[in-house]
Design brief:
This protein is α/β, with parallel strands linked by helices. The chain has one domain (11-175): Alpha-Beta Barrel (TIM Barrel). The chain is 34% helix and 17% strand. Strands 1-2-3-4-5-6-7 form a seven-stranded parallel β-sheet.
């Protein structure tokens, strides 16, 4: 689950509903009390046996004692230094192209959220990869890939049989 308090304001309750082994990627960059909300979310994740990653802020991830860090595509090179500083962290990156997948792998990322697979209200102007292009990129990727962007109950069926390690979703998660 990728948090977005404008689309899913009850993030704590949403995390409690996830099955063990899932992950929560705490994105909400503009949340005024990001540290406090992050700590609450981390506690819920520990109770529910979920992985907890903080997006875009390694210092916050360290302070919260997160399980890892998610980095925007433009910041992928920072993964290398975070990997050295926190070798046990799960480090994921956003990727939107084959070149971004290779940069992420070279920087030491563990996985990529490849997006947008389908049309998404989060980024209405972004051109979706579509099922065929996503499948091709995921198959050729040097690291594990999660499908992200427009994933819901209907679109999830279109991903059946594709080489991916999982899916990530915001609002579509409740309908998956």
């Amino acid at each position: 689950m990728v948090t977005d308090q404008t689309r899913v304001p009850e993030v704590i309750e949403a995390a409690r509903a996830l099955p063990p082994g899932s992950a929560v990627l705490f994105r909400d960059y503009e949340t005024p009390a990001r540290l406090e909300v992050g700590m609450q979310l981390r506690d819920v994740c520990r109770q529910q046996k979920l992985r907890f990653l903080v997006a875009g802020n390694g210092r916050l991830a360290a302070e919260i004692r997160a399980d890892g860090l998610h980095m925007p595509e433009a910041c992928v090179q920072g993964a290398r230094s975070w990997r050295q500083w926190r070798p046990k962290w799960l480090i994921t990156v956003a990727a939107h192209s084959p070149a971004a997948l290779w940069r992420a792998a070279r920087a030491g990322a563990d996985a990529a959220l490849l997006s947008p697979v389908f049309a998404t209200s989060s980024h209405p102007l972004a051109k979706p990869l579509g099922t065929l292009r996503f499948a091709n990129l995921a198959f050729q990727s040097p690291l594990p890939v999660y499908a992200f962007g427009g994933v819901n109950k209907q679109t999830l069926r279109r991903l059946a049989g594709i080489h991916l390690c999982g899916v990530a979703a915001v609002a579509g998660l409740s309908s998956v």
